[in-house]
# Entry
Amino acid sequence: MTAVRRPSGRPADAMRVVSLETGVNKYAEGACLARFGDTHVLCTATVESRVPSWMKGSGRGWVTAEYGMLPRSTDERTDREAARGRQGGRTLEIQRLIGRALRAVTRLEALGEVQIKLDCDVLQADGGTRTAAITGGYVALAQACRHLQAIKAITEWPLTDHVAAVSCGLYRGMAVTDLDYAEDSTADADANFVMTGAGALVEVQATAEGATFSETELMQLLALARKATGELVEAQRRAIG
Amino acid sequence: MTAVRRPSGRPADAMRVVSLETGVNKYAEGACLARFGDTHVLCTATVESRVPSWMKGSGRGWVTAEYGMLPRSTDERTDREAARGRQGGRTLEIQRLIGRALRAVTRLEALGEVQIKLDCDVLQADGGTRTAAITGGYVALAQACRHLQAIKAITEWPLTDHVAAVSCGLYRGMAVTDLDYAEDSTADADANFVMTGAGALVEVQATAEGATFSETELMQLLALARKATGELVEAQRRAIG
Amino acid sequence: MTAVRRPSGRPADAMRVVSLETGVNKYAEGACLARFGDTHVLCTATVESRVPSWMKGSGRGWVTAEYGMLPRSTDERTDREAARGRQGGRTLEIQRLIGRALRAVTRLEALGEVQIKLDCDVLQADGGTRTAAITGGYVALAQACRHLQAIKAITEWPLTDHVAAVSCGLYRGMAVTDLDYAEDSTADADANFVMTGAGALVEVQATAEGATFSETELMQLLALARKATGELVEAQRRAIG
Amino acid sequence: MTAVRRPSGRPADAMRVVSLETGVNKYAEGACLARFGDTHVLCTATVESRVPSWMKGSGRGWVTAEYGMLPRSTDERTDREAARGRQGGRTLEIQRLIGRALRAVTRLEALGEVQIKLDCDVLQADGGTRTAAITGGYVALAQACRHLQAIKAITEWPLTDHVAAVSCGLYRGMAVTDLDYAEDSTADADANFVMTGAGALVEVQATAEGATFSETELMQLLALARKATGELVEAQRRAIG
Amino acid sequence: MTAVRRPSGRPADAMRVVSLETGVNKYAEGACLARFGDTHVLCTATVESRVPSWMKGSGRGWVTAEYGMLPRSTDERTDREAARGRQGGRTLEIQRLIGRALRAVTRLEALGEVQIKLDCDVLQADGGTRTAAITGGYVALAQACRHLQAIKAITEWPLTDHVAAVSCGLYRGMAVTDLDYAEDSTADADANFVMTGAGALVEVQATAEGATFSETELMQLLALARKATGELVEAQRRAIG
Amino acid sequence: MTAVRRPSGRPADAMRVVSLETGVNKYAEGACLARFGDTHVLCTATVESRVPSWMKGSGRGWVTAEYGMLPRSTDERTDREAARGRQGGRTLEIQRLIGRALRAVTRLEALGEVQIKLDCDVLQADGGTRTAAITGGYVALAQACRHLQAIKAITEWPLTDHVAAVSCGLYRGMAVTDLDYAEDSTADADANFVMTGAGALVEVQATAEGATFSETELMQLLALARKATGELVEAQRRAIG
# Structure
């Protein structure tokens, strides 16, 4: 297995260069430009006083996400979803995932009746956009919570832990961390792991398109993910300050 | 843990009564009414000579799926997606999952340039509709392949194995098999496993809404799923005959 | 005229085997699987406390219907309306007809401000789906009214009579009852009759695509419809019990 | 019954003032502004060389119709369907009816592979817009056929007869001709009759919203319609010249 | 420049025959059929008691416009926007322009919380539909204001001046007034001017598709527009009476 | 007039700090991040071999544009157009303008049958997004033309001149250059000027919402625009290199 060389030349357990840049939007209550190598996702958090209608009067808040890709974030231009008149299945699936991931570490009752909306827009895509969105989205969410604290809209800190995500996969039979597009498009299996700062699992989505994988392989991927999310949580801490 | 009693009274590792009834549609090339207890999903397979445009000339076929729920398949009536004018994110996510699961055991090059479309329509829902759809969809798919064989449109058997799916979860801290709605709506974590007849993994989707789970718990759920999908594959064999 | 033989071999005035099966849905306030031969329509009735906005405060209720076809209910697969993003003209026309037919025998003021929604979903189509939907929809509606009576939401019985429907037509010049698809697709004229238990007319829709018909022929079709709806009303009585 | 007075003061068997004005559009191959009293419908016929895809290569033509209402054609402004993003059920139902009516008198094989599209736009509505549309649409269609003849695109006259339509109904128990809005909105039953110049029936749509009607009453309405469509056919002859 | 002859033979500074006909709709609070030569636009004004939600409680009113074209208002039939399911960019752009133009001469605070909706529907198009819509729309708006005055819904006259519009352009290098379609489709530059009765500018939209124009040319077009809108304002005065 | 102070403190004829940054997208054939102060628009150019169907076989190319705003590019979050299912009128109007502006300096016949699509996505909005989009879009377009030249797809340089745009307006009666949001939202009139490097006019869109302006004021705005677009063209030259 030592003979397999990743297209990027990275070791099997090495993430791409990660950067979580804040201060990138003058309006939003929270904002983070998450870069995993050439994958760039701009995440903003908006605090809204209006919760979904089915939550009204519950005294609890909500955290939700929307996801989009700029048309030329991809190698071949992708049609604009606004022009096509509907969001595709992949978009809806990803934004549901981001929302679940962030809610897993949020005590909604501590927010009061407030909704925090995360917009995750991909400026450039090179694999792993959803995991970058979750990781950067957490930073924007934390900033928005700080804002709520600063204006005394909340009294308790609503986040119970960090949450970060990484995609690992089987590339030519080898378990590798943080797939880029060159790896992702030829991988036998691809698994997204969402984990907390404490190392608990929030979500596992392991998929083998046209292939299968074993329990042992799943465990290998999980071990890689644990190491990588640990590093991402460190980067989040530095970004939030 | 022995103190936890499931709402249905089932043992932790017991599926609901499963029935895979064939001969339920006079037109389709394959058809199966899959029942997991009170969850009833009508699966039909349609053979079309037209493949998606990006496959034309490739000499390979395609397998895809659509999913829908009748409005009163649920306890509270759900608005008809045709009337709302769009399929929701959950629908799109499920039909993508069904398609991937079935393609994982299909050698597309053995189909020739033919598309097989699985329609999975939920007549009654009581949890686990997507796993019933995959399990029954496989039966309809196998019948459609038989049909292609009978009319000599294919020369090799295109399916490499069975594929079946089950949802397991943590109910009051206990790992249990085949969640029904009463369990699903209060479960701490919910995991869908798609597995082949040989026990290989095709897809794992483990989710904790507002909670987390450990690696050990994931392994427990996987063990339950392995046993359950083994039983489902047996039921598929009997149905296909 | 004695020389004309129907594809099914039925006498001119004979309906297909009719079955109105109840107890087919565990959630709905009323449910009936109506079978006219190979035409199978699942009808459910849902009681909603919310009436259309233009009726609010009127003290009266409303009865409405939605209609859909499963994609492979037809010989050739029909695209899913939810996927196409809109209900076609035929669908809208049929569901308006079903609603009008059922309201014709309902005293809306006796319902209170309650809406009863009939969902009529075609599982298998072999001609006459709209007439099966009306006939089975009435059974589901009656069950929903019983439910309202049982929970003491209404004090008077709101239905003034039965309502049932049948399609008759001119097949090779001969007036025949209950057209199946083989007849319908080649008929010179096709007429849907909606009638009450007392034999009064609720709706007549007689159409000649690419042909015409005479007043005498219309009367012949009406006579056949009177006999057939009489039988359907009997079947309804047995189903409701 | 002699005591019933119509809101307009018209005798039971009298139509409103009818006018079928031609020469009202400088571009269309046929055009007629049909006025039934205060109901004004602008009908244009467009000849297109492109037939629907399912007719290609058949050597036959097609006649179809579209229907619309200007927002302030009605007493209360109606929302623009283009702004709402979809045509309502009533619109689709009416334009299907107009198309069927006109095709009933057209030998499609005599048209060659040509489509004639009738646009029927209601400038002002006072009841009976669909019957005015059919009656005026026939005039526009006949002009378009003349145009095809003039340019020698066809060799045989493709229309087999006139077709005209009128709405009759039961107003306070009395059968009356050509309902205007004041009558239509309170009528017990409303029937649209489409008839040929020879008096044959093309379509009967008789509806009782919240009521029923008898066979005898249907016959009375039919007799009135026969007289009225006879007059309309005369008006068509004068318009076409 | 004297050698250039306009297709219509008109002098450079001559408008087409203009007619602003009132009394063309029995329901609307204001109505005007504006004809600029063969361009015919039916404008109706509707008074609604409901203002847009963002204006509620402001004590001010609103004036807005919708624009549409009948399918055969054009030489080649244009698809119906209601059938396509969305209004095109050109339509939206034009109706925004009409609304802004009319609001420029309306004191919204004098209307009270009332919305006036102008519907401008093109019956026949031969260039300049938007300028005819603004010019005729003003007449309908003024009538609607008279109506509000008559029913004592307003106490002050809300219109501060007339507003009218004309399209001028560079045709074969010559500045000409009121482009018809033959000129518009080959013009080097096309400018729409919206002006008040006092000669003030409300809107200038000068466009050169595939070309450019100079400041001097812009001034020439403006001078032509000033003369033409003066004539249009006179026609408005006569129409309003 | 000297007493009027702009919110930003800028002199009347001073633009905000302008930056046209290239190298901001690794996939696109051309890319420029245009910054006019706090207004940031990411412009990418995509070369496609497919032209619109109405151009096929013409031997000419096409240049078109799409425009979008990230939801939190604005002070209050704006709903995502992809989620709403349609692009608004403002979006369509702006993207039509950008396309016209760029085509005005492109010889389409020199492109061959190639389409260049400009995507202009607003990352942060503070007034003047459409003018920044045109100015930055030109840079991306020029890079895409260089790319076509480099791969020898074209032999002649297809751009005839630069094109740039600026918004000027009347702020408290004073003509000022490059309105930011604080000025734009309270300006009496707002005019967008699109000009070439040679100073010719491509498009003038001058609008007075709820007010009017004089010919003299229009000339003042035009003089300011001439100076500003001259500076922008210089910045383009430096960016293109």
